[in-house]
Description:
Helix content is about 25%, strand content about 45%. The protein has four helices and 13 strands. Strands 1, 2, 3, 4, 5, 6, 7, 8, 9, 10, 11, 12 and 13 form a 13-stranded antiparallel β-sheet that branches. The chain is globular. The termini are far apart.
Amino acid sequence: MIRLVALGITFFISIQVGLLAQQMSAEELIERSLQVHDPKNEWKSFSDSLIFKQLRPSGEVSYRRTFIDLKKNRFSFRSNNEEGVLEYQVDKKGSRYLWNGGRAISEELKKKYRVSDERASMYQSYYLYLYGMPMKLSDPGTNIDPNVEAVRFQGKDYLRIRVHYDPEVGKDIWYFYFNRRTFVLEMYQFYHDESKNDGEYIYLDGAVKFGDLRLPQSLKWYMNVDDRFLGEDVLVDSR
């Protein structure tokens, strides 16, 4: 009898979530989520240093430090390596890299760490995109499917939206998963080719507050095809 009641409640909740998805547009869902993540529109003027601990399946632990200044359009990324400290800097004038605080770096080290202007832009895009959601869903070139789906992923119910981009912005297909009660963004998922089930999904866990702005504390990466764990990025400090 208890099991039947529990199943009935689950069925009722599923119906309610489905009705909510039908009644709400993607634009409305994003707006509700923004009221949780960035109610005072602070992301557009965000300026702070963020220190990340990276955990890999092998047990390897490393630290990275980024500086984001959206008002002045500046970004830097610094990582500690065996031979020294590599830092990328990006601003309105372009990108540059520093090795142990200076400009000189051997060709051998440059090749080993794949040092390039393109990699500087890649790091900037990585951190601003993944930590700037759902705020960056309003960026130019972002195409949001209007429908909200009620979906179940690994035993949990979500409200999900689908996003694709103009070709000059990006080619991947993205899905964003929101908590059906609080509207907090809890996961995102991308495919290079959805028919092949490639790409990855990323769980967001915890929150770090900067004023009323909410950034995820932990990002856990998994493969779509086999749920293989790829690593975790943990926001451990800001200075």
